[in-house]
Inverse folding.
């Protein structure tokens, strides 16, 4: 059996789309068939979405994307005004992005571990596995503990996940976890600095959940921090109302996809005749045929009045291949040239806070 | 174009496993290969889980399962002490189960609608589509409005989704939405009556979310109801601590799978040396190869210390085919004979409530 | 490392649809959603196809189906006049069905072998693996050698695979490999006795190919047996011309699906205005989205003029689960009551043989 | 309903890997996860395979690849000595490559046709559909007719598909279907000129099958051309014996994958102790979990003694995305620098021809 040190040797490296001009390659794909043509059309739609400066771009993240080497893409999109809000699973934002922001890494696992042959050994070594990737569980416990500290530092009241994640950004900023201080850039930090709100509608379902449980347990009935998921929904609906033209760039499906699509209906319920999402792209390997939302087509969402049919594209591909092409295409065509940051956090700071 | 009435003619009928003795069929599958053998082994594990009367059975639901005709299976499992807690997406519990409890139906859609060819027409008619199934959006709005009323009737404070869903059960009970009063049985009602807690860790991501947003909007800064997702996590962890032997019956993946698996770690963080889930079954069509949790194998979960390797089985099948076989097998072998209801809600009623 | 004997202990058992009346179960599935409803509709179409006594039913087999425990279903369909011709990959017919007819078995492999962890050990033990199933390679070599002997016994000329497989049936009949002689029933034997032609359009791509290569090698330029794949296509086209109403029951895709669909066009090329296949069912897990034929929908085939749109159904399910339901449904509804064997081999015996 | 002319307006364009240097992009993928890392490793293995000048590279093609815009990649691989033999489904070689060589095109279909909504209209217009691609059926009939003419021009005897396809190459060369004569390059032509053998083990299952059926029908018992699939297997086995070090570059699975893997066993049966394939790459979207060969892992093939475990890589991706990266990587690293054409056809010309 190899040692823990031997197994955790080769860190995942995040791809830098700025280094790879894929414009000609993606242009060539547009006249082919199947996923390449879909990728080409998705790249066109993302470009359109960005050139439409009225459009607020909502990035949705499901699946283990940061651990897979896609972190820098999302950081670059935020820093270049190519994303105005993020809706994500908790794992991507806390267990993976914030975790790396604290200085930790994900590691390449050998092919022989992919299908579970070594899992009993890994358990003994406290190495967690995500398909072909390793994590040091002891480092993950430090991440849990950090969210616990942040929770304890807050005034007891209900918070949206967005407010809580903003505090995580402030923590990184104050504690020298920034490129300027020799640390690394991260989604949580970039979003904090650029006033890009991040929502995790199932926020307790991640490393932060462990911190929150420990916090509430210690308080035993005394006033404590809570995470109000209804407030998340209310806040993001306010953004739709304030900025009616919207587009979705979705990686994976799940709760983030559903949550972001639903804000059209929620605005309607608040008495605002909101337009459907004007642009929508989803990259996924999920299958439509079990009826689950993750693989449901964007045409199906149009029957619900959530997504407009004109500029929508599903790309059936694993994201580590398709996203560098789509995001890289828009970046190298400089689609973001005329965009300014929407600083949506500032709109949300005016939503009343209630105990 | 057909009329709305013509399109909404043939209601989805829920399969009744009590009517179909599949024991011999499933026994025959055990000596075959691929998904049939996996189905056979999953049925064996579910039987074992139930005969182990110490075992608390947690049912996890993701995907559109109630709209697909599986509601009665879950109701029967609850009423026969074959499930002790439920973790679900909001859509299954509110938009689909509670919706049908209010007297509404899902409808069979013609094959020609499956791939989106009629979605523009459906939009006009206010018919929502889930793959091959239709919903009357006007009826869904009544469901949203009902959750709004329930929210307004509550004392303003943070609630776990479990507490809120219990109020939904009380609403059904009080308002004659029961078989005794001529209504139909439902998961929310059965769980209410049997003291089976239901958790929706992303609770605002459904019809109830619309009711909550409307409520919070109307309150404009005044005290209001909030949904504390950390409290959900805290509560379910208490169950793991109170009842250390646990088994998971998972349909689909997503947030419910992750949330239920995580309670082992959460108990550990509260200082309790919790055992891994002793039994675990997952029925899914998701693919392991994109690294997303929904399709990740249960062996992978064992590297995280969440699931024991001895009695775990993935069944790669669409649930409407595999679940009637697995649940029906255990039922007709009378695996539940010695089980009594664990009434887990009563444990949770002792968790302190904090404003 | 376990011994070979320890690993080859538990033979695959073929499911017997005659023992499982699934009519009520499948009827219940018709009002559900997703794959269950598709399975229900496929069962209806198979029933219709059989009650239409004019209809010649062509069974197409791709994937490792016999090794998976489905052999007896196909034998029963042939013996009960529910199949009039078979188009298959060579592996199903020779390496698996004829192999079992010779007295050998496939074996259940432990779950831990599924993903390849033990393949190096298996290689050493001469055990071949098909996903979760084992084969004794030494027994497979005996099967190769038997086809070699059969080849050597034939008059040197081009044969259709259909003619060759008929000789394999004769071999079984003459050599006591029949239930009457204490052996087991098989597809090759049942088809021989019922005059049901079997075509393997890629016949050298299996155990028989090894026998043929050995034969041709030994002949070194002298007259020898050859396999004329054009003759296969010619023969099956004659069947379409002689019996215009046809239906397809397809398990998997690949060459068998394409070959059987193509006979409509081939008849047209011979100057006969052939009707499209009137009924078509395909059970598959393949995906339409890579454009490959295996997962292409039957609607797509209708654009080619091969399959009529009225009675076609794709069932996206692994076959070991779906086929017992579909075939068992038709059998227990006695849809075959009025059918007589079409004895299509007799039509083909009139096709001229040319050196 | 649009006219045929309106629908067939935008020809599929074949991607030119020579124009896209993807080396840095693929290098970046090697330190990521999931399919990107697999793609990176597959590119490394293809590079290794080419730098090993002893290695005979066998390209296997299944799925509709030429119609999808991948034709030029295969032509470039052949012309640059990066492929020494081809094993393919008939459709890729005859209906698609030879078809384009005759001057015809495949066409981009609008997204609204993908799921079959317009298939009845297409049928009327004689437009055939492959998922998102159109073909003019009248042009396809000219292709069928051309193979009929070629068949009629041959001396009556059994041919391997390899011999027949070589005659198709000669036809293109003689009839001005070459770049020099103002035509276009094609796989069939390039292989003819470079002495690269092409095998279609299920040769009658394509447009050539129609020509052969028409030929045999017209001959009515007189001597005619036949296609000896056993001879195909014998010939390719001779190549393995003459050139023991081999590598497989497989796009899709099906018959080509099985056939190419089997030659190791066939050589053994001829008394030659052949080594396993030293290198193997497969790009596929197929699933391992139905036990079918198309998605079976290369580890599984190692249990059969067909593929060595050291340098094998599955890439779970649709080929139009992954192949330009893998083939382009090897090309731009100039891995082919020291390779000379193996001209394998010349070995096969010495295999005795028998009537």
């Amino acid at each position: 059996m190899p040692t823990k040190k031997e197994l955790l040797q080769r860190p995942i490296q995040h791809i830098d789309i700025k280094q790879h001009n894929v414009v000609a390659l993606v242009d060539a794909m547009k006249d082919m068939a199947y996923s390449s043509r879909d990728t080409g059309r998705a790249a066109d739609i993302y470009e359109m979405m960005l050139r439409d400066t009225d459009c607020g771009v909502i990035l949705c993240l499901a699946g283990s994307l940061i651990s897979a080497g896609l972190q820098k893409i999302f950081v670059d999109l935020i820093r270049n005004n190519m994303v105005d809000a993020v809706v994500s699973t908790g794992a991507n934002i806390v267990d993976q992005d914030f975790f790396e922001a604290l200085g930790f890494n994900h590691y390449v696992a050998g092919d022989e571990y992919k299908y579970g042959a070594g899992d009993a050994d890994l358990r003994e070594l406290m190495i967690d596995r995500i398909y072909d990737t390793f994590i040091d569980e002891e480092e993950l416990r430090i991440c849990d503990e950090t969210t616990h500290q942040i929770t304890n530092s807050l005034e007891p009241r209900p918070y949206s996940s967005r407010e809580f994640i903003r505090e995580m950004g402030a923590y990184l900023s104050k504690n020298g976890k920034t490129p300027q201080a020799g640390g690394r850039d991260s989604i949580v930090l970039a979003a904090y600095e650029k006033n890009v709100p991040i929502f995790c509608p199932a926020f307790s379902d991640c490393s932060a959940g462990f911190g929150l449980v420990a916090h509430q347990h210690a308080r035993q009935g005394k006033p404590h921090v809570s995470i109000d998921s209804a407030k998340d929904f209310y806040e993001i609906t306010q953004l739709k109302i304030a900025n009616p033209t919207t587009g979705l760039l979705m990686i994976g499906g799940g709760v983030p996809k559903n949550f972001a699509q639903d804000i059209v209906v929620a605005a309607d319920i608040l008495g605002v005749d909101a337009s459907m999402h004007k642009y929508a792209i989803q990259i996924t390997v999920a299958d439509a045929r079990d009826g689950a939302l993750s693989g449901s087509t964007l045409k199906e969402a149009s029957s619900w009045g959530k997504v407009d049919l004109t500029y929508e594209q599903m790309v059936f591909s694993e994201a580590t291949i398709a996203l560098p092409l789509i995001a890289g295409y828009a970046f190298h065509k400089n689609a973001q040239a005329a965009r300014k940051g929407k600083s949506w956090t500032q709109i949300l700071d005016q939503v009343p806070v209630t105990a």
Remarks:
- Chain C has 15 helices and eleven strands.
- The mean pLDDT of chain C is 94.
- The first strand of chain C starts at residue 56 and ends at 61.
